[in-house]
Structures are given as structure tokens and as C-alpha cells.
Amino acid sequence: MLLRMVTALVLGTATLTVTADDHMHAHHAMAGAPTVTQVWSRAMPPTVPTGAVYFTLRNPGDTPDRLIDVKTTRAEKAELHTHIHKGDVMRMERIESVEVPAGGEVTFKPGSSHVMLFKLSEPLVAGEQFPLTLIFENAGEVTVDVAIHEDAPEPSTHAHGHQ
Ligand SMILES: [Cu+2]
């Protein structure tokens, strides 16, 4: 028991040290977790069993990271998708992962990359929120709230809305 407590304390201290170091040297952070902002999903009629989630990823670190999976309690299955054009036809295709370059930004938006939700547990009703966990190769899991909107939110005017 005592040994376990000591182990926990040591781990806790190590975690705190890393966090403080990241704050003091943010521009040199080796593994700064990507930030996930402007997270939203389009409201859907209750008969539609699928949905899509959009967001902006920013990587403040010096090393590239990679979004490799997503999950949510709101749907039985969540996948990374993109749209591909073949002549006049546009269709969705599942993608394995998305790279977020060091110091770079990736935007998931309608007509482009999105998180596809299958077998929703509840309909996507405007005004509601639900949690989405993004899993990065280096940074691990990052959980954010998805805001459900009728239409794409305006980038500049609503960016401050959920802090
Ligand atoms: Cu899709």
C-alpha cells in the first residue's frame, strides 16, 4: 500500500513537471497536444441514422502528429472520412489517418474531411452537445464537446463561444 502511494506520487510529480515545462517553453514543446477548435455537427432529422462532425486541428508542437481514430458515445461507430471527386461524381471514402504538420493546421469541413457517425444513439438536435474523443498517434486522446448547429458556424464570430 505504501509502495503504491509512493509510486503514484512520483508519477504525479513527473506529470506536473512536464506540464509546467510545456507552458514555459510552448514554442519548443516536443509533444504539444494538437488543439481542437470550432467543433460542430449539423443537425439532422430524427430519421437520419448518420451524422458528420467538423473541426479545426492545430499542432503547436515541433513534431508532426497524426489523428488516427475517433470515438463518441453518441454513435455506435465513428470513422474518419474524406470526399473524393471522380469526374462529376463526389463520394465519401474512409481514411486511415490525417497528418497534422508541426506548426500546421487541418480543417475538417463540409465537402471535405469529416468524422462520420453511424447508428446515432440519439438524433442530432440543434442546440445540443455531445463528447467526441480524438485519438492522436503522439498526443493520445483529446476529448472535446461537439456543438450541434443547423448551419456551419461563422468562424470569426462564434470562435469564442464555448470556453
Ligand atoms: Cu462520411
Textual characterization of the structure:
With 163 residues, the protein is mostly beta strands. The protein has one helix spanning 2-24, and strands at residues 35-42, 51-58, 65-71, 75-86, 89-94, 98-100, 105-108, 114-120, 129-136, 140-149. The longest helix is centred in the first third of the chain and has 23 residues, at 2-24. Strands 1, 2, 3, 4, 5, 6, 7, 8, 9 and 10 form a ten-stranded mixed beta sheet that branches. The chain has two domains: 1-26; 31-149, Immunoglobulin-like (Sandwich), CATH 2.60.40. Bound molecules: copper (II) ion. Residues 52, 81, 92, 114, 116 line the site of copper (II) ion.
Mean pLDDT: 82
CATH architecture of the largest domain: Sandwich
Shape: globular
Whole-number total of structural domains: 2
What is the CA-CA span between the terminal residues? Answer: 40 Å
What order do the SSEs take from the amino end to the carboxyl end, as H and E? Answer: HEEEEEEEEEE
The named CATH superfamily of the largest domain: PCu(A)C copper chaperone
Strand content: 35-45%
Using DSSP, what is the number of strands? 10
Keywords:
1 helix; binds copper (II) ion; Immunoglobulin-like; mainly beta; 163 residues; globular; 2 domains; ten-stranded mixed β-sheet; 10 strands
